[in-house]
Amino acid sequence: MGRDNDDRLFYLAGGPLAAVLLGVALVPLREVTTASNLTFAFMALTILVAELGGRNATVATALSSALSLDFFLTRPYLRLAMEDKHDLIAFVGFAACGLVAAAAASHHEGRAAALRASRAQQKLVRLALEQLEKGIPRELGLSRVLDATRGVLPLAEALVQDTPGNVLAATARARGLPAPSRRLDTAWEPPDPERGRLPAEGARFPLVAGGRSVGWLDVWGHQRPARPGAWRALSDVARLLALLVAVPGGGAAGERVGRGTALPESPPGE
Predict the structure, then answer these.
(1) What's the pTM value of the predicted model, to 2 decimals?
(2) Which CATH architecture has domain 136-256?
(3) Which partner from 10, 90, 193, 195 sits 20 to 30 angstroms from 118, CA to CA?
């Protein structure tokens, strides 16, 4: 996410700057052809920014391109004014095309974000499968999966324990949090999966392998909205965690904290 934000900021600043520099670069051509013919260069720049920088960068680039076209390439030069109605038509048409490109960029940006989220979720599931395949010690494998889960799924903290209540793995601050009282099934999804959040006070999912209960997954939510497909990925990860917990000879017994037995039942929709 951090890299995506850096890229958007780069194009948000770089797009308008490129529009100004393009206007300066085209100054030698303003006596050779009409300003309307020079709009194609600005349109190409706007489309490029729309592909790489997203909606906000596209809007900024389109507006800066229109102003650069007016200031540098239409009479009277170096003024934000126009003396030819054909230049005005070209200016308005270019600005409208820029806004259309921004709308298309917004749609493309949403699809790209969904694709990135899907790939991240696939990598998370693959990581859990690798822990099983390579026979990595249980606690180490669980810790790796939990640490990776926070960056992909809408979780602030997570903790895995076996049925007697031995903590097998936990994220940084999960051990100090009170045990969740709310119990959810692994097939649970919020009413609005695209915006739903796990409760900040936590929820507990049963870990079942081979038809028997092997432990619990405690999770605490945060305020960030869920990415597309996050809830299905959480269900898949819970099932894989159950398999990791069920692996025999998985290392140390864990830390007994007395958190694990009876829980008040709550319907999944609560």
Answers:
(1) 0.54
(2) 2-Layer Sandwich (3.30)
(3) 10
